[in-house]
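Duplicate of #3305? Posting structure anyway:
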């Protein structure tokens, strides 16, 4: 049903979203937004395959978990989802970040081998979240845009984690001035106080649904309470300049990262863009062997995670990494307090690798 908060939120998002993305379809969260993104891509192009990346997470529902590349997919990997996984530019402790050209060459070869006429969309997190805060090399997203245009593939950006200021821009794609055909969002849309997600689409996608019914939407679709919460959240982002704060505090956070790397032998690599950051812990800075195996943990990582919790700091510790993704309203003193806790906990990792 039409209602005022929904209409006002649609209008506001059309202003904020990149380029000519000017229509949105509301969902209950991120996974559902990705389900519709791939449905739309399939309907609009008449093609069935979706390309996604191994180092990705797109949600836990049936379609979204098939898109997901990381091990959360394995238990449900029934093999006929139409999803083709590709590697993204490598980032990690053991070698240099791949160049954009190299990654794009492999991507194009995969597209050709799969058959461009069978591929509806390519879904990617512009800055990858839970798989390691992977910041693409300059030129990569522009190159993906160009390949998608060349082969008639819709570019779908999952900004569920990277959107709404997390990277110091309203949307991560803005850093590279790329406009996807479909963009999905949730989390920061309401600052996660109330469940709400959305799919934003460009006119070239929206036009198809002017003439064709969009079979989608769950019972609680576009709930007035959630739409009102999103409007209130966006107002607060603007009034309190939360996006600017994320950009400014992001620079402060980078200095904390550098300081931790200087002080702690177990800190192998750090990355951050805005308030989206990560520390990668290693056993040895020469071999750069991670402190826990891929998809696993280790006693030092468990002890470190426990120390952070015991000191009252809640953050995501996964495999050999510690994520540093504080609230966008954080100030310098609070950042210093958080990083002092991480500093202390890192002594545990240092002792383990000594
Ligand atoms: C990048 C990304 N996409 C999608 C999702 C799924 O969102 P939700 O948990 O709201 O379904 C997540 C959740 O962590 C995410 O990080």
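Output from current build:
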């Amino acid at each position: 049903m039409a209602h005022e908060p929904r209409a006002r939120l649609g209008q506001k998002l059309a202003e904020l979203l990149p380029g000519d993305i000017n229509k949105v379809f509301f969902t209950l969260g991120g996974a559902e937004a990705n389900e519709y993104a791939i449905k739309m891509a399939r309907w609009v192009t008449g093609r069935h395959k979706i390309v996604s990346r191994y180092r990705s997470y797109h949600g836990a529902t049936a379609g979204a978990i098939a898109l997901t590349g990381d091990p959360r997919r394995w238990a449900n990997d029934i093999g006929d989802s139409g999803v083709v996984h590709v590697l993204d530019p490598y980032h990690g402790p053991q070698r240099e970040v791949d160049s954009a050209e190299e990654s794009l060459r492999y991507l194009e070869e995969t597209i050709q081998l799969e058959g461009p006429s069978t591929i509806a969309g390519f879904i990617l997190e512009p800055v990858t979240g839970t798989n390691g805060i992977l910041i693409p090399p300059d030129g990569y997203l522009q190159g993906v845009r160009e390949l998608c245009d060349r082969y008639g593939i819709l570019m779908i950006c999952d900004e569920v984690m990277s959107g709404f200021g997390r990277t110091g821009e309203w949307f991560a794609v803005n850093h590279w001035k790329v406009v996807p055909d479909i963009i999905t969002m949730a989390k920061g849309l309401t600052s996660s106080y109330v469940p709400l997600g959305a799919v934003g689409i460009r006119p070239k996608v929206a036009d198809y649904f002017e003439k064709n019914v969009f079979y989608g939407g769950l019972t609680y679709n576009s709930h007035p309470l959630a739409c009102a919460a999103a409007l209130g959240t966006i107002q607060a982002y603007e009034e309190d300049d939360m996006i600017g704060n994320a950009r400014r505090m992001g620079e402060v956070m980078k200095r904390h990262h550098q300081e931790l790397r200087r002080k702690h032998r177990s800190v192998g690599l750090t990355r951050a863009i805005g308030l989206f950051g990560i520390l990668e812990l290693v056993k040895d800075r020469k071999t750069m062997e991670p402190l826990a195996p891929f998809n696993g943990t280790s006693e030092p990582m468990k002890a470190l995670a426990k120390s952070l919790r015991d000191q009252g700091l809640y953050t995501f510790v996964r495999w050999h990494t510690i994520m540093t993704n504080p609230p966008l309203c954080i100030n310098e003193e609070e950042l210093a307090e958080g990083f002092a806790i991480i500093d202390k906990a890192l002594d545990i990792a240092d002792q383990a690798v000594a």
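Confirmed duplicate; merging threads. Residues 4-239 form a domain with the Aspartate Aminotransferase; domain 2 fold (CATH 3.40.640.10). The chain has a mean pLDDT of 96.
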